[in-house]
Amino acid sequence: MTQKPHVRYMDRATPPHISTLILLAALPALSLNMFLPSIPAMADHFSVDYKTMQLSVSLYLAVTAILQLLIGPLSDRYGRRPIILSGGAIFIVATLGCILAPNAQIFLGFRILQAVITTGMALSRAVVRDMVPGAEAASMIGYVTMGMSISPMIGPFFGGILDTYFGWQATFWTLMILGILLLAISWADLGETSTTQNTSFSAQFKQYPELLLSRRFWGYAMSATFGSGTFFAYLGGAAFVGEKLFQMSPIWMGLSFGAVSVGYMVGNFISGRFSTRVGINPMILLGSIIMTCGIACSLVLFYLGFGSPFVFFAFMPTVGIGNGMILPNANAGMLSVRPSLAGSAAGLGGALQVGGGAAIAAFSGFLLSVEAGAFPLLWLMLVSGTLAFVAIHYVIRRERALP
Fold first, then answer.
1. What percent helix, strand, coil does the chain show, rounded to 5?
2. Coil, helix or strand for 374?
């Protein structure tokens, strides 16, 4: 569409209202982390260890990575509306399955199925690109991203309250109710915006080798993967550290998780304000330095004998700030490597980022033990942040060497 379309709220004959797009992006983020303070209680409920229940994070992320590669072509072929509505319906059924699961294995199966809600996150941005061009789309996507940022800030806090007073199932009942409401709103408001009828799934995948041979693409992709990997490692292990090592309540753990999201909003604000002036590479470099230094400070204090919940969580907002500076700029860098392959770069880069995060989250769960304390998690986060720094440093040197 070359002109801004007329939008009427709750009229599926027109494109969706921006509030609907914000909700579509927010619920997947909420589904990822609202239950995190409940992981220890869920492990006790199903009589499994923390490492098994932590798979509810890493497996969820792994399936999300796979879906990143498929959602775009599917929505090009069948339209944005049916894919989003189908994803919402499956999410509701999967969430009910999580609540009623009799054992950890069945729970994890339904938890994996919950990942289909990522259709809303992925396609909300595609809908914006369908509706408006250029700079206007960037501004509109900013509002959608803001909604996605607020969800992980408040989700763990409310999840901790629900767990404390009503049990871990209450969090999933809440997610199911929100899923039903979102499906109803989407049904009434989400008009179809796609005008393409691309029937070839192979066309997009045939473009991947050209990207895979680009060293700059890999540099940006790895800086995003390892930058977000510090956050995913935190998601995978912080609940264990808070509950098993420091005996924190779910409410306090929820507040601690939310602090990282506050940092992420700050980092996004810095990116929006200064990226054009400073440049994407220096912004990624600075973000990786801030993140790595924050984790290193926490680790040093632990080695000096000052290990405490405050020392562990107080430096974690630097992870959010670093990611807020790294991810928008690294994604822009990936798309700029081969502008004609921007769609393929977005899908492949997203899959690498989320898939790498899933692997790091799983690894963090397997490293942790009461005897080892918080050290394995802090070291894993430090290594991941350092690798993000190395990756963007490589891109900078590569660009300086080009004529």
1. 85, 0, 15
2. coil
Helices (H), ranges, 115-214: 118-131, 134-166, 169-189, 202-205, 208-212
Q: Topology of domain 13-189, per CATH?
A: Growth Hormone; Chain: A; (1.20.1250)
Domain residue spans in the chain?
13-189, 207-403
- Residue 258 has, within 13 A of its CA and on its CB side, a CA count of 17
Gap between the Cα atoms of 356 and 117, Å rounded: 20
Whether 13-189 shares its CATH topology with 207-403 is answered: yes
Query: For residue 280, what is the enclosing H or E element?
Result: helix 280-303
* Run of H or E residues at 391: helix 375-401
- Say which residues have a Cβ less than 8 Å from residue 338's Cβ, sequence separation at least 6: 210, 211, 214, 217, 344, 345
Q: What pTM did the predictor assign? A: 0.73
- Which of 25, 59, 344, 124 has its CA nearest to residue 214? 344
Enter the DSSP assignment of 255: H
Interval 306-360: pLDDT, tens: 988 888 989 999 998 998 888 878 877 876 777 656 556 666 777 888 788 778 8
User: Which overall architecture, per CATH, does domain 207-403 show?
Assistant: Up-down Bundle (1.20)
What value does the CA radius of gyration of the chain take, rounded to a whole number of Å? 21
Tens digit of pLDDT for each residue in 82-139? 999 999 999 999 999 999 999 999 999 999 999 999 888 878 767 776 776 544 554 5
Taking a C-beta distance cutoff of 8 angstroms, is the pair 131, 15 a contact? yes
- Give the torsion through C-alpha atoms of 120, 321, 287, 39, to 10 deg: -70
- The two tokens of residue 285 are 């470099």
